[in-house]
């Protein structure tokens, strides 16, 4: 097989280069990984696009849902096995909950804190294939 980066005949393995998979030799594999590492450090936000993102008013949704259930921040924190200060910071939008915590909050408070990344969906839809977004929707049913 021929390396897709340097064109040399060699044993290849799949490498991620700038988000796309290419077959590369050992030499280029190392270069690709290095490049990726540098990129990650400089432009974190433009790396891989999430399919679902946290809604903007997540803090309000969480707060309202918690109050509806008659729970204090302390109680909610305890039930989720988290610190009360974390819940406080999330409800005042100082901290964005981790994806794990989002899942826990969604399940516990019966709310939806994520929305699909519209641009991503639009891009994919044009190809006419089943999108990741569609797959997520199917899963949710
Ligand atoms: Zn190569």
Please characterize this protein's 3D structure.
The protein is mainly α and 141 residues long. The protein has 2 domains: 1-43, no CATH class; 52-113, Orthogonal Bundle (434 Repressor (Amino-terminal Domain)). 50% of the residues lie in helices and 11% in strands. It contains 7 helices and 4 strands. It has helices at 26-42, 58-68, 73-79, 84-91, 99-109, 118-125, 132-140; strands at residues 13-17, 20-24, 52-54, 114-116. The strands form 2 sheets. A two-stranded antiparallel sheet has the order 1-2. A two-stranded antiparallel ribbon has the order 3-4. Strand 1 (13-17) and strand 2 (20-24) form a beta hairpin. The protein binds zinc ion. The site of zinc ion has 8 residues, from helix 1.
CATH C-level class of the largest domain: Mainly Alpha
CA gyration radius, whole angstroms: 21 Å
Q: Which strand order do you get reading across the main beta sheet?
A: 1-2
Biggest sheet: strands, sense, closure?
2 strands, antiparallel
Low-confidence stretches: 38-47
Order of helices and strands: EEHEHHHHEHH
Separation of the first and last Cα atoms: 44 Å
Number of helices: 7
User: Structural class of the helices, strands and pairings?
Assistant: mainly alpha
Mean pLDDT: 80
């Amino acid at each position: 097989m021929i390396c897709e980066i340097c064109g040399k005949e060699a044993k290849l393995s799949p490498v991620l280069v700038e988000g796309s998979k290419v077959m590369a030799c050992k030499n280029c594999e190392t270069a690709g990984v290095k490049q990726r590492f540098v990129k990650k450090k400089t432009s974190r936000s433009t790396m891989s696009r999430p399919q679902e993102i946290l809604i903007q008013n997540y803090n309000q949704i969480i707060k309202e849902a918690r109050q509806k259930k008659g729970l204090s921040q302390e109680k909610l924190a305890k039930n989720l096995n988290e610190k009360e200060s974390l819940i406080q910071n999330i409800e005042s939008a100082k901290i964005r909950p981790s994806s794990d915590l989002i899942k826990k909050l969604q399940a516990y408070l019966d709310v939806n804190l994520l929305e699909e990344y519209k641009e991503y969906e639009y891009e994919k839809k044009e190809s006419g294939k089943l999108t990741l977004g569609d797959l997520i929707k199917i899963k949710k049913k």
